[in-house]
Amino acid sequence: MIDIDRLSPVPLFRQIYERIRAAIAVGQLRPGERLPSARSLAAQLGAARGTVEAAFGMLAGEGWIVPRGAAGTIVAPRLGPAPLAAPRPRIDLPAADPMPRPFRMGLPALDAFPRGLWARLVAREARALGFSYPDPAGDHGLREAIAAYLAVSRGIVCLPGQIVVTAGYQGALSLIARAMIEPGTPVWIEDPGYHLTRLGLAAAGARLVPVPVDAEGMRVEAAPEPARFAFVTPSHQAPLGVPLSLPRRLALLSWAEANDAAIVEDDYDGEFHYAGRPLPALKSLDRGDVVLYAGSFSKVLFPGLRLGYLVVPARLVGRFAEAAMRFTAGCGALEQRVVARFMSEGHFARHLKRMRGLYAARRAALATALADVFGGGLRIELQSGGMHLLARTDAPDTELVALAEQHRLAPAALSAHAVAADCGSGLLLSFTNIPETQATAMARALHQAIGHHL
Known about the structure:
Elements: H1 12-25, E1 34-35, H2 38-45, H3 49-61, E2 65-67, E3 73-75, H4 115-128, H5 140-153, E4 163-166, H6 168-180, E5 186-191, H7 195-203, E6 207-214, E7 217-218, E8 229-232, H8 246-258, E9 262-266, E10 291-296, E11 308-311, H9 317-327, H10 333-344, H11 347-374, E12 379-381, E13 388-392, H12 397-406, E14 412-413, E15 426-430, H13 439-450
């Protein structure tokens, strides 16, 4: 078992590499001993398979492990036995909290998920499940359901064959890197932006080009140098929550078309909009077929599914199908069939509608409670959608986060999402798992943890 720290600035692939190398060095993993597969270790850690494969690649390159194809991967026999006196530290995977800590980012309302309905669908699909290898690009029924949903909900017209089912957003990111990004490729990223995008691209060897973000999203005109790709979160910018304005969307599309470049749209929470009319997906405006659209079921159903999807331009279908076959071998057949059934029978649309109402109420309750408890100590920037609040503060946000963690609270620091930009200090506070009746209590708990430092 391997322990990983998701709050650490060290990339996950590097943490996995270091833990396994240490276990081999002290003899906990012995020469010739078989390692778990990349897929099973990724599932155990809740990481993308590509992340584990990157760690395995480093270990193999240094001679610590030996891949043997279908026979699996073993610790290199030539290393010889470890010294008997070497200490054998315990390497454990900490047990997950039964419920998420308050304010933790990236989780849907787990208390509102229709578990009974889901269990019935799982049982039904399990009885009808075949035992052949799954299609590496994804279950056809699920791809059809996703295409139908995107056409109605996000304004995206695509064929099921343009959709690749992935292991969440990180799986989509890994697949894009495998299929299209060479080491040293210049890539625009939002600054501040989603840290896992930054880490995933860095692991793939891309040369990151931070582009500043303001109240209208990525400032295309402020990009410091040309690039081959742009990774954006246009519905609700991560982490600021602002939508990419229509002029900026059109400018970004024009840039991609004129420079033979590609845009990756991470629509991680585009379903959740509470004020005004939401802008359609950037992909819906894509006349030049330059946008790759990534969606995830982690934010709308539950993250344990590890399922997402990628819509690729028609001209790239063959390239991505080959990459999926070579590097992913497909996602779990049962999970895909259950999600397909959940969507085709109308449960998905009803669940989303319910979550929008629930989140709107929880968002308003938490914003009001924070204002009442903190006064001017925290300044809430309420955007039109998303799954978290941004609370501005003059105090160093990383120090506030450390204090909150001591009280088993889990806000995130805004400044940790920046590369070169001065985005100020602020706390990112998820409201999805804080019922209205608990909003005041949670605001008071946060004030108790950090109030004397504001």
